[in-house]
Amino acid sequence: MTTHSAAEFDKIAREYDESRGGTARAEGFAEQLAPLLDPDRVLLDVGIGTGIVAAELVRRGIPTVGVDLAPAMLSLARRRLGAAVAVADAARLPIRSASVAQTVSTWLLHVVPDRAAVFQEVARVLKPGGRYYVIPARGQRPTDEIGVVVNELEDLLDPQRSRQDGPEELAPTAESCGLSYLGPFGQRTKVFEESPEDMAQALSAGLFSGSWTGGAKAAEATESACAKLRALSDPGRPRKREVVDAVLVFERVRDV
Ligand SMILES: C[S@@+](CC[C@H](N)C(=O)[O-])C[C@H]1O[C@@H](n2cnc3c(N)ncnc32)[C@H](O)[C@@H]1O
């Protein structure tokens, strides 16, 4: 059964790659991940999306297969990776227990309704000692003037912080599912340019997954955030922005 977020990703599948930093983001993630991965073992990408990151991993010699719940996202992944992808729920993986040596998820755990169910499934399919590599979407939130408005919107729409996916939120859940948190690795600072107007347009176009639930209240909060962005000085001027990405590494404990 599809989830609300997967259905929304299907709607934006065509714009997804470009709206999320295009090939440059995928190359950056692959460069962070590849040194941590074993090129002699198949990697399972859970929530593979359009396959943009997986394709860069394959280019770097990592044999990769993947699953995603959104068929339109996955059809783009199929163009990149062929038959190595399948429609499946991260919380119900169609994979034999203890059969996978390494798994990865980039920008998945902030959109799943039950991340404990995902950790449980990843722990189930991993071999003892196998690893789960996670690049969070909201691990370190930028606090520049655009970031402040977006963070405020996120906090308003998600007071329970169920969409925050930094180590403080993920590690306790992972540990309770038999995945021990080894720490952040491969930290990388990405510098890019974006104007408040660019961000306002992305929010208005429904590209921000944080606004997908919450109905009229979320729509109102999103419009108010757009107004705040447009009220910043010279809103069309690109600002230099910075985000810091890290790979959070979890290991399946050997005696589960
Ligand atoms: C933000 S995108 C990230 C895609 C890809 N990992 C990347 O970095 O480009 C999140 C992806 O998770 C998928 N997704 C959401 N819930 C899922 C679930 N329960 N099982 C599998 N995939 C899911 C969505 O369909 C979407 O493709």
Q: Mind explaining what this structure looks like?
A:
The protein is of the alpha/beta class. It has a domain of 179 residues: Vaccinia Virus protein VP39 (Rossmann fold), CATH 3.40.50.150. It has ten helices and seven strands. A seven-stranded mixed beta sheet has the order 3-2-1-4-5-7-6, with helices on both faces. The chain is globular, with a radius of gyration of 18 Å. Bound molecules: S-adenosylmethionine (SAM). S-adenosylmethionine binds next to helix 1 and helix 4.
Any descriptors?
Rossmann fold; alpha/beta; 256 residues; binds S-adenosylmethionine
Label the overall shape.
globular
Helix-strand string: HHHEHEHEEHEHHEHHE
Largest sheet: 7 strands, mixed
Q: Output mean pLDDT.
A: 93
- Share in β-strands: 15-25%
Strand order of the largest sheet: 3-2-1-4-5-7-6
Can you give the helix content as a percent range?
A: 40-55%
How many angstroms separate the termini? Answer: 29 Å
Low-confidence stretches: none
By oligomeric state, this entry counts as single chain
CATH topology of the domain at 4-141 and 161-191 and 243-252: Rossmann fold
Rg over alpha carbons: 18 Å
Number of DSSP E strands: 7
Task: Give the full name of the CATH homologous superfamily of the domain at 4-141 and 161-191 and 243-252.
Answer: Vaccinia Virus protein VP39
Return the structural class.
alpha/beta
H/I helix tally: 10
The CATH class label of the domain at 4-141 and 161-191 and 243-252 is: Alpha Beta
Q: Indicate the CATH architecture of the domain at 4-141 and 161-191 and 243-252.
A: 3-Layer(aba) Sandwich
Ligands? S-adenosylmethionine
